[in-house]
Design a protein that fits this description.
141 residues; 7 strands; globular; binds coenzyme A
Length: 141
């Protein structure tokens, strides 16, 4: 099940992010921006919480901010479900475009995004503390 993130999820989501990205994790204050207008923060759950994802929407531009899946649940379709859900809500944007940044060294994430039709449009040096990032884009139709 995919549902909206709630206040009670914030500490768990930050903890998972710190586990997955020790040098660039979201803080709890930043995570609370989840509840601002234009933000879509979601949680995948099946008995327990399996992962979360975040998107910011401004005008016709949707920006995927994060997708985190619990290590024990990776490779089982959770990331795909989260991305599918974000893209479904972004498709309501007329002539919309979806963008994201992904580490050039993150093969699983790059494969996931390419599978969903994202293509690398540029590279930002030093975007993450230890790697460059690809800027990836997808037209929404
Ligand atoms: C990247 C991540 C979100 C993918 O989520 P997931 O639930 O593991 O992925 P899924 O099971 O839905 O797999 C979807 C596709 O992703 C790619 N993928 C997933 N795991 C992969 C791996 N270990 N190696 C290569 N490709 C992989 C494949 O293209 C896969 O499609 P396939 O099953 O048809 O081969 C997840 O591994 C994760 O949380 N990683 C750590 C955090 C992270 O890097 N987030 C992305 C930040 S940009």
């Amino acid at each position: 099940m995919i549902r909206k993130m709630e206040e009670r999820d914030v500490a768990w989501a930050c903890e998972l992010d710190a586990l997955l990205f020790p040098d660039a994790a979201w803080g709890e204050e930043e995570m609370r921006e989840a509840f601002l207008p234009g933000r879509r923060f979601i949680v995948a759950e099946k008995g327990e919480r399996l992962g979360w994802a975040a998107m910011d929407v401004r005008g016709a531009r949707a920006h995927i901010l994060s997708i985190d899946v619990e290590p024990r649940s990776q490779g089982q379709g959770v990331g795909s479900s989260l991305l599918f859900s974000l893209l479904s809500s972004a498709r309501k944007l007329e002539k919309g475009r979806c963008v994201l940044e992904a580490s050039c060294s993150n093969a699983p994430a790059l494969a996931l995004y390419e599978k969903f039709g994202f293509r690398a449009k540029g590279r930002v040096r030093g975007y993450y503390p230890s790697s460059d990032a690809f800027i990836m884009e997808k037209d929404l139709d």
